[in-house]
Each structure stands twice: as structure tokens, then as C-alpha cells.
Amino acid sequence: MKTPKVFISEVKAAVEEVTVDDLMVALTQPDVILIDVRESEEYQHGHINGSVNFPRGMLEAKICSHPLLAHHCEEQDAINDLAQRSVYLICKTGGRSALAAKSLTDMGHKYVFSVAGGMDEWQRKQLTLSH
């Protein structure tokens, strides 16, 4: 049996991780989706402007309700739209976002990225937070 640390390390190796700097560049693009997979309480204490909070345990169920996809009447249309967009996932340190990235990749999404270091790294760089 694997320890959680070993398991998350393996998941991180299987998904595409990007830096906070990469995320900052990506956020200048109009079709990018940023999902914060932390719990609601964590999100309320500070988040990146433009992010949407879908806690890790609800991501797969809520992904089609993202504001950029909500105009679709059919779930499959929302999924098809999402498949054309880059999805960046962030959490506190990068573990939950890596698990979320693996899940979306397993669902068939191609352009999925986990932000290494997560919000801890964002704050370490003293970047702007919304409340």
C-alpha cells in the first residue's frame, strides 16, 4: 500500500504541472479557466481574481456549471466547449490540484494543468488576492 505522499508524488508526475509564473501568463488569455479546488472556507480567505471555487470533492459534478460554460443547455455541449479550453487548477500546495488534474485528464480533457506550489507559492510571491 502506498503512503499518501508517494501516491500524490506519482499523480504529480502523471499530470502537467506549471509554475505560478506560467499561470500569470495564461490568465492574460480570454479562454482560460482557473478553478480553485480548495474548500470554500479556504477560498473565502483569499483567492485569485477570476478563479471559480469547485472544491476537490465536487469538481467532476460541478465542472459543467462553470460560468463560462453555463450558457449551454446540454451537458455534452458544455463538455465539448470545455475540451477546447485550457483549465488550470490550484489548491493550497499543489496536491489536490494534481489529483483534480488527473481526474479531468481521465475524463478525457486534454488541456489541464496543475499549479505547482499552489496558493502558498502565489502568496510567497506576494501576488494579489481577492476576498
Describe, in plain words, how this protein is organized in 3D:
This is Sulfurtransferase. One of its GO terms (molecular function) is thiosulfate-cyanide sulfurtransferase activity. Residues 28-131 form the Rhodanese domain. The chain has 131 residues and is an alpha/beta fold. The chain has a single domain (4-124), classed as Rhodanese-like domain (Oxidized Rhodanese, domain 1), CATH 3.40.250.10. Helices cover 42% and strands 12% of the residues. It has a 5-stranded parallel beta sheet with strand order 1-5-4-2-3. α1 packs across α6 (95-106). The chain is globular, with a radius of gyration of 14 Å. The termini are far apart.
Short description:
With 131 residues, the chain is of the alpha/beta class. It is built from 7 helices and 5 strands.
Instruction: Indicate the CATH architecture.
Output: 3-Layer(aba) Sandwich
Strands, total number: 5
Please give the order of strands in the largest beta sheet.
1-5-4-2-3
| Mass-distribution shape | globular
Tell me the span between the first and last alpha carbons: 40 Å
Give the topology string: H per helix, E per strand.
HEHEHEHHEHEH
How many domains comprise the coordinates?
1
Gyration radius from CA atoms, angstroms:
14 Å
Indicate the mean pLDDT: 95
